[in-house]
């Protein structure tokens, strides 16, 4: 965990909970208990090549925003692998395809640009958590942004682009992440078994013919 992430996540109430449930000393030993940057400056953790590759392979993520009423809202965003694009070490974005037309996340971001994003790799039980500031760009107002984020061959109408400036990120513990597989991932997992099954069938057919 970076100091930037802990300076945002470990609020006074979080620290109180750590103390109450006995993890405060362990957190302090990890050296990730930063109180924040001098002068209240906001951090900007740079993404490494590993995070960039991880994000670029995902076919979905969870996006959390906060409404004017203070209630959090979590939305799943999906698309073909690679639809989230890392633009530089501090920025990633995606083309916002037409959905149910409620525009809750878009409206929340207009009022408060702070977001939290969870990228999940269920087969490998990996989770990347990101704090960032998001902006929504209407492609009718700025057509130049759409080609940067459009996924070739994916038939969906691009209405907006969402750009996230990374403030901090953290890789989470693998414990309790249940492995799940997409249809494509499942085909890859089962391929060796199917090949072996076909080999055995061929042997049986050959033996029967003899």
Can you characterise this structure?
It is a single chain. It contains seven helices and seven strands; from the N terminus they run ααααββββαββαβα. The protein has a seven-stranded antiparallel β-sheet with strand order 2-1-5-6-7-4-3. The chain has helices at 3-9, 12-21, 24-30, 49-56, 104-111, 146-149, 183-209; strands spanning 60-66, 72-78, 84-88, 91-97, 114-121, 126-138, 158-171. The model has no long low-confidence stretch (mean pLDDT 87). The chain is α+β, with helices and mostly antiparallel strands and 210 residues long. The longest helix has 27 residues, at 183-209.
What amount of the residues lies in strands? 25-35%
The largest β sheet comes out as: 7 strands, antiparallel
Structural class: alpha+beta
Report low-confidence residues grouped into runs of 5 or more. Answer: none
Radius of gyration: 22 Å
**Helical run tally:** 7
The dominant shape is globular
How do the strands line up in the largest sheet? 2-1-5-6-7-4-3
How many distinct beta strands? 7
Q: Report how far apart the termini are.
A: 64 Å
Q: Can you write the helix and strand succession as a string?
A: HHHHEEEEHEEHEH
Overall pLDDT metric: 87
Approximately how much helix is present in the residues? 25-40%
Short descriptors:
single chain, 210 residues, alpha+beta, seven-stranded antiparallel sheet, 7 helices, 34% helix
